[in-house]
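Limitations
The structure tokens in this dataset are predictions for the assembled complex, not deposited experimental models. Users should treat interface geometry with appropriate caution, especially where small molecules or nucleic acid strands are included. An illustrative entry is reproduced here so readers can see what is and is not provided.
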Amino acid sequence: MKAGLEVHQQLAVGKLFCGCPAEFSEEVVGAFARRLRAASGENRSVDAAAALQASRDLLYHYEIVPPSCLVDLDEEPPAPLNPDALDTALTVALLLGATPVDEVVVMRKIVVDGSTTSGFQRTALIATGGSVEAGGRRYAIESICLEEDAGRKVAERRGEVTYRLDRLGIPLVEIATAPEIRNGAEAREVAEEIGSLLRATGRVRRGIGTIREDLNISIDGGRRIEIKGVQDLRRIHEYVEREVRRQEFLLGLRETLRSRGARVPPPTWRELTEIFREASSGPLAEVGRSGAVVGAFALPGFAGLLRSPHGTEERLGRELAGQARAVGLGGLLHSDELPGHGVGAAQVEEIRAALGLESTDAFVLVVAPDRGAAERAIARVAERARAALEGIPAETRDPQPDGSTRYSRPLPGRDRMYPETDVPTVPIAPERLERLRASLPERPAVRRARLARMHGLSVEMIGQIAHAGDLDEFEALVERGHAAALVARLLTQDASAARSGAPAAPPFSLDQMDAVLSASTAGRFSKEGIPAVLGALATGAGSLDDAIAAAGLARGGEDLEGIVDRVVRSNAEIVRSRGAEAFSPLMGDVMKQVRGRYDGKAIADALRRAIARQESAAGTGSG
Amino acid sequence: MPESSSSDPGRTIRELPVGARIELRSGDGRRYIGAVVPNHTVGSEPTVRLRLDNGYQVGIRVGPDTSFERLPDVPGVGPGPVDLLPITPPPAAQGPWVTVLTTGGTIASRIDYATGGVRPVKEEAELLAFYPELGRSGPVRIEMVFDRLSEDLRPDDWVTLAERTVGAFSAGARGVVIAHGTDTMGYTAAALSFLLADLPGPVVLVGAQRSPDRPSSDGPSNLHAAVQVARSASLGEVAVVMHAGLSDSEFSLHRGPWVRKMHSTRRDAFRSRNGPRLGTVRDGTVSVAEWARRPGPGPARLDGPLDPRATLLWFYPGLEPARAEAFVRGARGIVLAGTGLGHVASEHLPWIRSAISGGAVVGMTTQCLEGRVDPYVYATGRELERAGVLYLDDLLPETAYAKMLWALGHASDPVRVAELLRRDRAGEFLPRRTGRADE
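Predicted assembly:
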């Protein structure tokens, strides 16, 4: 298999075509609704993906937020390309060793899913070529683009989608690698290295959703599949590997279908609504409830091939259902899962008889609000079944949180772009590149080596810090006087352990981490107490003192000596019988009471002293 | 084999046919493969514009050390020959039809790759490619009258439009839609209101604020609403139909003499000034105010001609009387857009007096756009009125200008022209009222 990666990173420099601040907002100050349609582009052919979306005839709602301007609303032409965004994209290009173009031409890329108010996304090619090194291999870069982000989808009802305009127009740098990635692990390494490089510019946005990856995957004998908008880097390898399995499954299925002589007849309208008048459960209950119609489509030779062959998740039924969903239906029913879903065995026989099917034939049922919708779904199901005879259809898929993907739309062709003539082109003067070259940030690999050298840590450890969070925080905390090893542990282990109980909590701020480290260093609690204090901060402790108390690390009136003395006194018998050997059993008791509050060595010293005191006191008493 | 490394390879490349596929090699070793597309930037740096295989266009600087090689063309790459969208011809007009007259403007424009701007479409097929839904609600007949942006239209074009409108009604159209550039659509709407008489159905001007080459264009929904109005509204006057707000669900009808473009870019730029809206199209339902003019029995009639010897002068502080006098020289009619209640600096009184005594008709309107002019409140007004300036109540300056052309076309005696100017002809004067009914 081979895979290419497209990394999309939001920049923190104001919106791309108006310069307005890019701030997420929970405050909505107005709304409007629009319909989009596929406009004919440069060569006047309507792009397939755009046409599909338009055929769904959705009404798109947009929520206006306080920083929205008329450009966001598509009520005003865009302003010229944000020069800071262009500088950042050029910096990224130079860091990757890519070659900038001489004149940037902004294009319109048609996206009729309503996510932009204009119906297109503005995008410009900034540079080509270059490479990135990850895991000891070098991967070629194909292109570096600068584009505007789309609106943020906040709600979706049947036939209507709502977007908020706060994300629309935020500059994105898009870096596309050549299809040279060989497996999921490599995909993740490349994504992480590109991420470090982007962060090195110091002008990227941070947090969930600010960096997104598209994966282009194909295997021998297949076609290109694009998995669009992966936000969780940790899942990249899973998406890649499951997609490879899906494609292998489809190629295997093709052979089976061909050997069986399976075929897909042209779609014809066969209505079976009458059979389900009395259906009371499952999707078919909609017939009685809302007057839905049921259409059927026969798939000769497909029997048994719609379900999962070996209990794996890949199955043709799922692929066909994706097509029904793409025209707005909830899905479909197929013969390999019937009887079931409210359809009885007798009804299955009735359907088979009505369609004149042999035992080797399969069928699908679509339940739709009207005949038109049912026919659209069946046309697409037929098309998808026919594609199964050819192998793997090129398409775009949506990543799901569980690591699987769902059909989204056909892969857009190249006709989807035409020039954005409202925006002047931007010549890139050699002097501009010289200026950027002179102030290029340190490359991540160089920086990792430098930090390792400076702080006596391994390059691997520095890599882990970069992996877990970021090196800026590491450097800042070390600069504030904290021990490098302690900071490394905090960033690579303690912080994530602390947030495991509150995954939705925002990342710790530099000041929070600084305060916790300082308190520990000052002896208010031990190093071992750091995760607990951070955990309390993540779960809502208002101040450091509250967090220390919530973690059970607050020291009462009794000091360490007092606690240790109390333990030793109440175990006087053991001390008498075992003398200094009593240390090990008593240490456990003491730790139960003071773990995390004091440093381990201090506790041990105190205990040894207390035992000695007790021994001498006992000696005096008995003698 | 390199085809050129002549003294000006950039020029040689730019002379290749649009869509020619080349491999370009720059002196510093870069290579680009793509199709040559026109460079929109006139007079900028010497770059060649290529459309790369990934669909992006880029500009590449060319110098003496640039070379290129012509490659075989790849079908479907580059702008090349165009494939028209599948076009369903408009259904043969059976039953009442709507005639759509196109004049150019954004609503009937597309991107021009020669200049980078938008240009009006020149063929009916091109228009239908943009608006395949045009005939969906019933028969339409399309006539291309002009292919000009609206700032290029002139008063004689208004007369042509009025003639074509009369012709469409005579041929049996139920209503007429005029697709028009938005910049001067208010002027045309006002002029047609005076030029057309005895209308047996609606005359609806419509435009687009956002270009039709974008999926979000307001053109299709505006046009659809306008055709609906022309097909179904009980209306015998000239109206403008455009977006009522930001959404694609509500459209406003504006009376021709009252409408003004109030914003350079917004979809809801068109507003009725002084008066209420003439009607709405809301979620597909057309409703018209009860005071709207109803269709007459016809036949529609051209109430021309226009005499173009009139000017519109915007007064501003510091305007020198000599400059104003030079500007209006030779005009039979002068419309002043004065300040406030209808004033100009008193130093202008001498030339105004002499223009009037020379036979010119001078009308006064207000720059305020809302409200009426009134000569009696301030001394300047009284002096102007005494000098013979006609106070034109609540007419918009551009409506007063259009009406002046019409009045001059109908009478040579200044007294008679003044009479025509003051008499309501198309519902252009709003009866006195305290506020606006619906806004």
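Some entries come with short summary sentences. For this one: The longest helix of chain B spans residues 155-171.
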